[in-house]
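Data availability (excerpt). All sequences and predicted token strings are deposited with the supplementary files. A representative entry, N-acyl homoserine lactonase family protein, is shown inline so that the format can be inspected without opening the archive.
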Amino acid sequence: MSDTTRDKIKVTILPTGTMHADLTWLLIDPSRMATHQQPAKQRDWVEVPTHVVYVEHPNGQKLMWDAGVPRDWETRWAPSGLGQFFPVDAATEDDWLDSRLRQLKLEPNDIDYLVLSHLHLDHAANAKFWEKADTTIIVDEAEKAGAFSFDGHNKGAHIKSDYDTLELDTISADTELMPGVTLLRTPGHTWGTMSLQVDLADSGTMIFASDSLYLKESYGPPPIAAGIVYDTVAWFESVDKIRAIQERTGATVVFGHDANQIRELRTGPGNHYT
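Structure token line:
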């Protein structure tokens, strides 16, 4: 790539509203859990920020990673009961994904690829913005199979109406979607959770781990699992996979819901990485 910004991959991290939840959902930390000797240990009610990632490639293509939380979370999440555990109670008008698209002067149809790390309610909630667009929507094949494997409104944090009418393309192996932009299969949190690797000219490699790694503490070492993990063995294997790539490339690993890290990153329109 040349030294001009227009000839480099540009990555913009966009916060899309903050939930709150008990820390145990994010981090199974034996040091803070109740024991027989400490049955009433204080619980921690913590920030759970969400974000999407906008990738502009010098080949002219545009990619959106994840789709954020919905404006109507209270009513949409009510049948599942999950709004009581993950209220989106710290979102500004500028945070919602439709606002973010306007800030970027984008319409859904301007996005070539919408890649959904997985189909949980806080990552796929706005995916139907792209229902009538020409955008290619991509998920892991195991995620698609699992997400359509149940009847009814939801299975855990999968709410079928978030994605049931979308045409979903799938990957079945790590896939370089564009030069320097690779989808990584990192299952465990769900059937087919993915991470996004972007190799940048100036900032080096960045790995957007989504819920493969909620927090810096999740990554360790040693890795600490979460209260929502579909397959613990696969999750540990995925952490090892991410760590191997990070050690080989010197990558910055961006965690899925880390309130401390998101404050340290450059975020919002105009604050991109190259």
